[in-house]
Write a structure and sequence with these properties.
The chain has 84 residues and is mostly helical. Helix content is 82%, strand content 0%. The chain has 3 helices and no strands.
């Protein structure tokens, strides 16, 4: 039987890997659009990368606020901005 700490580590590791897989699927879906003009594809890729970066920042802020003792409304609003 796997101990609790090992199960937690396993779950976190699987969640990270699943996130990586979804990231790959998103780019696969973007590039599988065969009738997309190359210039528009580059623009779409730029927006997609910006969105991914903002979501990651929002997730990092989310994790950070879970550990904070005094979380301000401004911190929560910033987190929500990036995650949406």
């Amino acid at each position: 039987m796997i101990q609790k700490d090992a199960r937690n580590h396993l779950g976190i590791s699987q969640a990270i890997l699943l996130g990586d897989m979804v990231y790959a699927w998103a780019y696969e879906a973007l590039y599988d659009t065969y009738d997309f003009p190359i210039k528009q594809l580059h623009v779409a890729q730029k927006y997609m990368q910006e969105m991914i970066e903002e979501v990651v920042v929002g997730q990092m802020l989310d994790v950070d606020t879970m550990c904070g003792e005094h979380v301000t409304t401004a911190q929560l609003e910033e987190k929500n901005h990036y995650k949406s």
